[in-house]
Amino acid sequence: MLTRQSLKPVAAAVAIVFTLFQIWFTSFGVLEGTQMRADFVAFVMVLIFLLKPPYTPKDGRSENLLVILCDLCCCVLAIAIAAYIMLHTDEIMERMRYVDDIPETARWLGILAVVLTLEVTRRMTGWPLVIISLVFLAYAVWGDMLPSALKRMDISTDMIVECMYLSNEGLYGIPTSVACGTIFGFIMFGAFLEKSNMTNIFMDIACLVTRKSRGGPAKVAIFASGMFGTFSGSAVANVYGTGIFTIPLMKKVGYKPTFAGAVEAVASTGGQIMPPIMGAAAFILADLANVPYLTVAKSALLPAILYYVSLWFMIHFEAVKSNLGFIDPELVPTRERVFRRLYYLLPIVVLITLMCMGRSVSFCANAATLSIPIIALFSSETRFTFKSFTQALVLSADNALMIGACCACAGIIIGVISLTGVGFKLMAAITDLAGNNLFILCVCLMVICIILGMGVPTAPAYIIVAALGAPALIKAGCLAIVAHMFCFYYAIISVVTPPVCQAAFAGAAIAKANAMKTGFVAAKLAVVAFVIPFMFVYAPALLAQGTAMEITVAVITSIIGVVALAAGMQGWLLKKTSLGERLCLIIGGLCMILPGLSTDMAGIGLCLLVLLVQKLSGRPNLHLKEQENA
In a 3-state reduction of DSSP, which class is residue 576? Predict the structure, then answer.
């Protein structure tokens, strides 16, 4: 009998072909760009229809045979959609866009392509992104009925279909181009690292470094999640990948379940802003901002350091305040074991070296991936077998499904914005609301970014807000890299911002904690991430834009500022802080984070005042008092 389980071997074979096809194309590039994107989307659709049922059967019942047959028909349609592009490429390239009539076959295949894209996106990520896409499509179809301020120009259904299916502005636009070219290479790199067991070195290094630090397991989460997250590209996947180890450890030494889940969520989210790889959206950022990816990585480095410094001290002050213990010595590897396995990091060295040499990002990813099986030969722990190698190929394809579906779906939104000009209308409305005030403009964009990012994966969330928000910031005088990084940060932070905070919900599930409480604790821990984008709007030196002296001063004052902010948020510096001391630390921290000599001096003054008061006050240290009583 035909079941979903019986389709898995077929799906595995398709996944292997998909990955090999991607390697072949990115290495030799023998297909025209639109053909490659169409094939990429077709592979993604086929695999999703084979593997992901449209709904979960209730009461453990087996899936209806008719549903499986419908999915197989959808697979055939997905192949037909790509085949038409492959067979008629020359005709599509030569036609006069929006002037020549669309062939009847292309019209129906275009409509089907949009419908199937929405369905596979729903199966992978749920309804939020689909609903946003449907709203934009509705605007494209019926926007002429709206009031004049929002009314779109005259657009026919054929123009919408042509934009979505027969151009590089819709389904096969920039998001899909980056997904099938650059992002897939890094997804494959992460899959091969995972299947080689080389990623174990991240956890070992983290345990060794934090072995003598109070509340060590939470600090393990920072190192492990930060390093692992830079390859996984998904905050939620990262939470599950490292959280199953770090969250029980945190609870064991005394952290509250909500705090443990929140720490893992925030640490995992930061992996998407941590060079050298960052998340999938970073490669799209490089394309949209028209800058080399290496420039994006360099610009992201200092804000990422501030993010993790802040989280480290948030955790440290919580651990000291709560008098929490250390990591179990049995879980700490010996120095000799770690040093003996440091060569596991060589693939990352290969990747960074090639990037610094100026080679293309796709080439760097493929070369680094190729180095993994070679380096893995030196240990039986990491050596690939035929089975593990094919599993790595399958995992590469499987990990690309969500980003592939989301990028194609985001292409619908970008296509509508391009076709109707609604982006200019929204940008004008935002600019009018803010007036000439850059701060109000940034606040408006922050709110829009966070709202649009709720429940939506980072890459499509960034694409949406960058299309609407980045031009407004550039018009206000910001550099392109600054404007896009601003949108990029808030699209990422939306996964730990209540009420829809997917990374925090994942951490809460592992910690067996209240999901919403975990979300609010995560937002508190990530408070610096809400401030950092404003910092580099007013001080581009934090994005490595400026002289060496400007960058150095900005880094030093900002690091002191985030430490003061962490102390104020957690209510602990040298000892428990009073309400007045907390306010001074928070205000002082924000002053040092903001650029300018006067604000830096004011911030340093407030922080020194708190330090002096705590040193001279006779207020006892709670933990010393507890030890004396014991």
Answer: strand
